[in-house]
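Hi all, a correction to my earlier message: I attached the wrong file for HMA domain-containing protein. Here's the right sequence:
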Amino acid sequence: MSCSGCSNAVNRALSKLEGVDKIDIDLEKQLVIVDTGLPQETVTQTIAKTGKAVTPLA
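and the right structure:
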């Protein structure tokens, strides 16, 4: 993600998921933190659908 448009697209996609409690996006660090009980795969697939590269953290 390199701009607010990118982060907004990711935020919109994640906000549509049932069970997402909080989304924090840090453009400078290229980091998205999602507070949810959903499987990590669901979150990463949703972000990937926006066209952004995803590297899950452990």
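Sorry for the mix-up. The beta strands are 20-26, 31-36.
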